[in-house]
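Design job #97: recover the sequence.
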């Protein structure tokens, strides 16, 4: 069962249903886990309860830390609220918490307020959070007042916490069943018109019709800036027919263009992962190469990443690279301090092959495609995009990735030049990782090279007001894009998902790219594993988002040439590292028996100009076989 795309998750289940084991399995791949134990000890008179607790403790990995809240149940909300974005918490379980809460020694003055406080902490938790709780109400009503009080209280807690979590799973007899969000149905949501069609499972599916005002320019495919936004018309490629046992939308998504199949992009998508074995094998191979020093240092991760994404321990340098420059402005305070028309000027310069990005692309032999994204409305006053615009932008980004891979591109680079992109990325980071806007918004530099603190404060205010406006809104990935993200981040998110589906790596280095990485993580958790960060450039939002995504910058040059240009500056180095790793021979083996490296042994017909050593006592012979009864190898050793 795939459960990618969650941040807060409630696991319900009956006694001995396997709910705790299921919850522990969900966080097993986390680097560190903080286990929050809520139940009180059974005491010396309850050996069975003590044995249960001991079993739970023995099952936890030694790398996990444990925190207990039985002495003060009200502290559970504080523990959850104070968690950091890079942490993973496992609370087991809410039944024990309710038991302690009903104890007169711990019972607060207002039970309802305590439960509401817990639900609020869960809803706003920036960390990855899993809560376990017994499900109640599936059997007879308890016959004792205390039993009825417990089931009533636990039922109320489960409802409040389930409403606050973005995902709820019920475990029945060891089998998990998703309750929230509902399991996606394979229903097409794209409006179509007569045109080319592709065959899917024997059924003709019309291709997406394109808008009449799409304007390609110098290789760029334009997405109209005015609603409604639709996917540009692209002739449908012949589609392979999936196997008969492919059910649902997951399998076709990995092989067919999403616009052609009419499938929807939604949370819980099951996309490919890089090769688990090729990366470590490539690093092990590096240790055997004939290098005079200790190796490639931190650039080993480049070889490991390329090996995993190419599925081979000897990866080749990326030859065909495409840069996708996303041009989409953000209205309102997000673009404070930006000169009007500046982003459009840079986009036109890139189309004409001018400017930093175009020149670096030409030097690297990379193709450059300018992509027009819809302008985002002022987020402090209302949604940046409509839901329809978000869906169209996601599909459009996916389609861009499909087209690039179909043309032979091996590496994609995300670039952006829109006004207000940094503030939009900060808003997305605040909504998905719990960041504070002033901490992730970089200083504003005006056209004269001066720091503009007034513009910076205006951007902070815009993000603050947008977060306040959406404080009760869903943090679903599409809702975040609609409310806060905007067109460029939505297109970039679709691009990452499409590249993941086609097993193609993506190079990031700026706010739009990492913001799209955070959103794509909640749609398909596999997407971040296909991303590589070139340089954080000292940008606070990029540094924090890279920590959340688990991406280490390949270089720390503090470049600030514009999003995409930083990546192209580092690209020649990445290619050189891969070429070196692929071409270097293995280190010559050394045989201690003869004291000579294999690579240094003379050829058989090569004369030996060494002066002979004085003969010692004993018989001598010019016969290569040596005296009778003497092992040739032993004789040669003595003579040598």
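Job complete. Output follows.
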């Amino acid at each position: 069962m795939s459960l990618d795309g969650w941040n807060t998750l409630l696991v319900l289940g009956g006694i001995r249903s396997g709910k705790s084991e299921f919850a522990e399995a969900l966080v097993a791949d986390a680097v560190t886990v903080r286990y929050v134990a809520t139940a009180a000890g059974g005491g010396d008179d309850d050996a069975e309860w003590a044995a249960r607790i001991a079993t739970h403790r023995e099952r936890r990995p030694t790398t996990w830390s444990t925190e207990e809240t039985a002495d003060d149940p009200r502290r559970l909300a504080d523990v959850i609220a104070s968690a950091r974005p890079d942490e993973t918490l496992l609370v087991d379980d809410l039944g024990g918490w309710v038991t302690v809460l009903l104890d007169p020694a711990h019972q607060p003055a207002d039970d309802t307020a305590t439960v509401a406080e817990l639900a609020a902490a869960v809803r706003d938790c920036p960390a990855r959070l899993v809560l376990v709780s017994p499900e109640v109400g599936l059997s007879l009503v308890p016959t004792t007042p205390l039993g009825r009080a417990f089931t009533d209280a636990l039922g109320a807690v489960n409802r409040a916490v389930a409403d606050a979590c973005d995902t709820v799973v019920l475990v029945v007899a060891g089998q998990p069943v998703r309750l929230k969000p509902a399991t996606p149905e394979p229903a097409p949501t794209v409006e179509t018109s007569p045109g080319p069609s592709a065959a899917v499972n024997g059924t003709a599916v019309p291709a997406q019709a394109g808008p009449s005002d799409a304007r390609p320019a110098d290789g760029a495919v334009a997405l109209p800036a005015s609603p409604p936004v639709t996917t540009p018309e692209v002739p449908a490629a012949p589609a392979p027919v999936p196997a008969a046992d492919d059910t649902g939308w997951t399998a076709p998504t990995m092989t067919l263009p999403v616009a052609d199949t009419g499938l929807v992009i939604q949370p819980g998508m099951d996309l490919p992962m890089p090769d688990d074995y090729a990366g470590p094998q490539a690093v092990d191979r590096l240790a055997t190469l004939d290098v005079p020093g200790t190796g490639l240092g931190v650039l080993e991760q480049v070889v490991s990443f390329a090996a995993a994404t190419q599925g081979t321990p000897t990866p080749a340098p990326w030859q065909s690279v495409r840069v996708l420059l996303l041009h989409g402005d953000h209205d309102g305070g997000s673009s404070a301090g930006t000169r009007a028309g500046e982003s459009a000027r840079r986009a036109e310069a890139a189309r004409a092959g001018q400017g930093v990005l175009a020149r670096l692309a030409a030097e690297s032999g990379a193709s450059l495609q300018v992509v027009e994204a819809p302008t985002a409305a002022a987020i402090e006053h209302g949604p940046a995009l409509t839901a329809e615009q978000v869906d169209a932008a996601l599909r459009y980004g996916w389609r861009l990735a499909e087209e690039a891979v179909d043309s032979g591109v091996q590496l994609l680079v995300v670039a952006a030049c829109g006004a207000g992109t940094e503030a939009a990325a900060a808003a997305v980071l605040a909504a998905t990782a719990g960041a504070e806007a002033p901490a992730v918004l970089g200083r504003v530099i005006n056209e004269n090279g001066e720091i503009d603190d007034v513009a910076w404060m205006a951007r902070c205010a815009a993000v603050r007001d947008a977060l306040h406006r959406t404080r009760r809104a869903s943090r679903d990935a599409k809702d975040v894009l609609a409310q806060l993200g905007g067109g460029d981040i939505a297109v970039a998110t679709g691009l990452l998902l499409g590249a993941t589906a086609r097993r193609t790596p993506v190079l990031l280095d700026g706010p739009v790219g990492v913001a799209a990485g955070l959103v794509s993580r909640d749609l398909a958790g596999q997407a971040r594993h296909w991303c590589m960060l070139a340089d954080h450039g000292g940008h606070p939002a990029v540094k924090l988002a890279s920590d959340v995504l688990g991406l280490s910058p390949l270089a720390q040059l503090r470049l600030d040439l514009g999003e995409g240009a930083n990546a192209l500056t580092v690209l020649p180095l990445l290619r050189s590292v891969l070429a070196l790793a692929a071409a270097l021979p293995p280190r010559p083996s050394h045989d201690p028996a003869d004291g000579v490296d294999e690579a240094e042994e003379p050829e058989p017909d090569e004369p030996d100009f060494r002066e002979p050593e004085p003969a010692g006592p004993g018989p001598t012979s010019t016969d290569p076989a040596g005296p009778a009864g003497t092992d040739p190898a032993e004789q040669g050793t003595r003579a040598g």
